[in-house]
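Appendix B.2, paired examples.
Example (i):
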Amino acid sequence: MSTNRRMAMNDDLIGGAVGPYELVDRLGTGGMARVYRARLPGDGQAALAIKVLPLRPTDRAAPRQRFLREAQMTARLRHPHILPVYDYGESDGKLYLVMKLVNGGTLAERIARGPLEPEEVAAILTQVAGALDYAHARGVIHRDIKPQNILFDTGGDAYLSDFGIAQPGAHTASEDTEGFTGTVAYASPEQCRGEELTPSSDLYALGVVVYEMLTGALPFQGSTPLAVMRQHLTGPVPDPRAANPALPPGVTAVLDKALAKRPSARFRSAASFSGALNRALYSHPEQPSAEGIALAASVRVPAPPSPAPDEIRFRVTRRLLAVAVLFVAIMAIVAALILTFVR
C-alpha cells in the first residue's frame, strides 16, 4: 500500500470541505501543510489542488497576516510557468490555497533517478528562469527554490510553485537553525546569515538546483543543517565535472558564478544565467575521440603524381617562347627610342 494511500485512510479531512471546496483525496504532505485533490460542489471532476495549513493555538495574528498577504500577492502572478493560484482564505482555523492541479510529478522525482540530460536541464531552466524573472520584476521573492517546488504537467512543462507561503510560523530546518526560513540545502549565504533577501538569493538557490540536475547530487552537504550552512558560507563550489565528467568545461565557470558567495558576483537575472548555461552546454568545440585520432594517424595521404616527360618539354618550350617574345618587344622599344633621338 502506498504512503499516500495510507495517509488518506487516516485523514479525517477527506470527504469533508475546506471553505467551499470538497476534498477528494490527499496528494501529499510537507511540513505542516497537506495537499489535496479538490473540487467545487457540483463539479464532476476533481481538477484542483488545495493546500491546507492548520493554524496552531499558539499562532498569533502575524503568521496569518503574512500568509494571506503573500497569497494575495502570488495570486496576482500570471505567467505560463508559475503554478496558478485561483483562491485562498481561512476556514475553521485552517488556511488554504487553491491551485491548478498538475499530474507530471516534481523535479525532485526526476533527479532521484539520476542526472538529467543537458537538453532537459536547459529546457527546464529556460522555463523556470522566465517565471522567476517575472516574479522578481513584480517585487516577489520566492525564498524557497528547490526541486520539490518545481512541478510538471503531463506535457512536460515546468511550473514554479510555493512562493514562500508553505509554512507560516514554522521552519523547514532543524531547531539548531531557529529563525531560519527556507530549505538549508538550497539556501544562499545571506539567507543562512538571516539577512534581508533579494532576488539574488533566489538565483543562488536556482544555481544549486541546476548543479543537482546536472550531477544528481547537491554541491554542499553535511551531517547537520549547521554543517551545510557553513559550506554555503565558506566552502568552495565542487567541480560539477568531478561528478559528471561528460559535462563541457564551461559549465564549471557558469556554476561558480551562479553560486558565488557575494550576491554582486552572481548573475543579474535568471535569464542571463540560463543563457550562459546554454552557451556552455552547446558552444564548446567537439573533441576528437581517441579512435578518430588513431584512424587519422594510420591513413597515408598519397603524393601527387609526377608529370610525364612530354608535359615537361611542353612547359619548358612555352616558357622559352614567352621569354623570346618579351625580348623582341623590348628590342623594338629600344630601336624606336634610338630613331627618335637621331631625328
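Example (ii):
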Amino acid sequence: MESPSVSNPSADEDIKVDLNDGYVYRLDLAYIGTTFLGWQSQVHGNTVQDVIEKALQTALREKVRILGASRTDTGVHAEHQVARFKTKQKVDCHRLQRSLEALLPDSLGVYKLRPVSPNFHPIVHAESKLYRYRIWQGSGVSPFARPFVWNIPQKLELAGMRQATQTLIGRHNFKSFCASDGSSKTFERTIFEAQWIEKGQLLEFYILGDGFLKQMIRTVVGTLVEVGTLKRTLSSFEAAMASQSRLEAGQTAPAVGLSLVRIFYEPMEAIPRALLEEKGLLSFNVQEFDAENAFKPAPRL
C-alpha cells in the first residue's frame, strides 16, 4: 500500500502550524482491552478514545479530539496504538505525559508523547499493522495467561492450520472474514506474512498486513481453528475465502486473545524476527519507542 511521505521530527522540535489548527502531537500508547468497549468513542460507552480525551481535557483545560490508527473492537488489547491530537497551546510533552499517567487508569499507558508535522495522519501514513492472536490448548491455563488467551480444550492439528494460513498471503478479497455490520466499502487487503508459533500449550498467530476489516483476524482464527479440530478441510477453507460470503466462514474467535502488537510507519513486509524467536511463554511488545528501528524485518527465506 502506498502512503504519502511523513516528516519525522525529533521529539523536542518546535513545530508551529497555523493558529487555526494549533499544535499537533502524537501519542504512542498501549492498553489492556478487557474493561473497554473498544477504541472508538460511544455515547454511553467506556472506550479508550473517550477515556484519553477526558484526561487530555482535564490536563489541558480545553476540549480535545483524538484520531487513532486502529479502531480495536471491544475487549481487544493493544501493545502499540498510535493517535494524534491538536491543541491550541504549546505543551511541555514530558509534563503532559506525567499528567496523563496520573489521570489514566492502570489498564492504559502512554509510551511517548511528541510534536509532529500537522500533516501526520495515523491511519493514512501507516504502512502496515501487526496483530497477534493467542490460544491456550487444553487445561491448566495460567491465571497470568487467562486474560490474553482463548482456551480451547483440545490440542489442535497445527500442520493443517499452517497450510491453510498460506492461503491468506498476498492481496485478496477478505469479505468472507468481515463482520456483517462492517462499514468498509472495499474488501481487498494485502497480507504480507502470517505465522503460527507453538510454545507448549500456547499457540501464537502473528499476522502482518496493510490493513484489516472489522473482526477479520478473529474470524480468520475461528475458521483456522475449525481446520485444527478437523471440522473443516483445507479445500473448505479455500472455498470459504473465495465465496466472499460471511456465512461460509467459521466462528468469530473471542476478543480476549487478540492484541494489536505494532503499527509501522516505515515499509515492513515481514514479521520482525525478534518477536517470532521470543523464548518467553507469555511476552508483550514493550519496546522503547524512541528508537524507530527497534525492530528489523525478518529475512525472506
